[in-house]
Fold:
Amino acid sequence: MDYVAPSTQNVSAAGAGFNLAAAIANIVNPAGAVAGYGRDLLRWLERSGVDEVEFQRCTELAKELAYPNKNGMVLSESVTRADTRLQQLKQGHLPLSLTFSQALGRLLMREPDLCYMVSTTACLLQHHDLAFTTSALTSVVLDRGGHEEETKYTYEPWRASIRAVIVKVVESIFLNITNAGHQTNAMPQEMAALHVHVVDDANFAAITMQIQRASDDLLLKAEIFPGDIVLWILNHFGGKMEVYVARVKIYEADCQHVWR
Structure:
């Protein structure tokens, strides 16, 4: 499984005009092409009390760790439709002051190498609270493998500072995307009746990131139905997926990415 960064036309078009790293650079140099986004980002950082250096470190660590597949891109498409509708209302000269949300959650949706943070958060929030989602996403960003025998993490002195940024990222995604009604695909009907069990945040990160690093076929065995892991796979894995319960195949799908 050769891994290439995927995106839809919507994300590619938006990404062509918005680059998060460039936006961060334009906080200092506002004359650049994405100065407008830089100002929006700076305002968000100021409102949230997030250190610019720690935010940049976090985004550098988080880049290209995963990509939503065609199922996961349903979330982006939902946000795009809402923005298109708002644009139409603005053009209708209504007696209202309508503006596009410039919250970080929306900005991340436009960055192909980081938009998985939004879709991953949306998946996690279907089964977990904000605190767990923050811990799991932090573990994803910091995961560097080495879990062949067991889930094992060494202490990272910068985990606290990275988590402080992720807290604000998750809150922004919750308030401005999932709480606004934009969701990833739900569990398919074939698995909806299964009793969902969830894993802890460290195992969530270890399993999902091991899936991302795999270059061959994968077999995930579990004595219980790990619903949060399965939902993430449905929205991020690139390839053919089959689910068996008691040796009986109950679901299969071709979860392909939309390649650039």
Residues 132 and 201 are 7 Å apart (CA to CA). The chain has twelve helices and two strands.
